[in-house]
Specification:
8 strands; Beta-lactamase Inhibitory Protein, Chain:B, domain 1; 176 residues; 2 domains; 6 helices; globular; alpha+beta; four-stranded antiparallel sheet
Length: 176
């Protein structure tokens, strides 16, 4: 008898799957609730990790502070960076996918600068014949409508242009 064919087996598999999913920090709750639990200049690294889990990357700055990267792409609509000062306290918490940062992406900017501004993209597409690469980020416009912010890079790795469009998954009715 296979485990998933019996009612008890299906329940066990479902319970195990739910436990795994709930252990993943980006699925276990809403980011706004996590953010509300933290206070700049007060919250510690331990508290940040309790709310957000382990960062995807940690970058140590010359001043001893560390920048924690919490991308929510490709399924989410946000990318967070949290800075922990040399004193072990959270000095800043920023959601990168916002109109101000989108406006900073200008022709001539390189890939590294764009990645620093917006975090990890939801997808990267290469167009060999045009010798271009397009990076896309999903975001919520006005907190409601799911959109894509796209950056096109030329052969030299510099920004050629940007665009904002509707999230194809929302158009097809498959969005969240």
């Amino acid at each position: 008898m296979e485990l998933t064919r019996s009612p008890w087996g299906r329940a066990a598999v479902a319970g195990l799957l739910a436990g795994v999913l709930l252990s993943l920090p980006w699925l276990a709750g809403c980011d706004p609730q996590r953010v509300a639990q933290l206070e700049e200049g007060v919250s510690t690294e331990v508290q940040v990790r309790q709310q957000f889990g382990d960062p995807v990357t940690i970058t140590t700055q010359p001043d001893g502070s560390r920048v924690f990267d919490y991308p929510r792409q490709p399924e989410g609509w946000t990318n967070y960076v949290i800075t922990i000062g040399a004193d072990g306290k959270m000095s800043s918490l920023r959601q990168l996918l916002n109109p101000d940062n989108f406006a900073r992406v200008q022709p001539g900017l390189d890939r590294q600068a764009v990645r620093k501004l917006l975090g990890r993209p939801a997808q990267v597409k290469r167009y060999e014949l045009k010798n271009e690469e397009i990076w896309d980020w999903r975001f919520k416009q006005d907190g409601q409508q799911s959109k894509f912010f796209s950056v096109t890079f030329g052969a030299d790795g510099k920004v050629l242009g940007t665009a904002i469009g509707d999230d194809p998954r929302e158009i097809a009715g498959g969005g969240k």
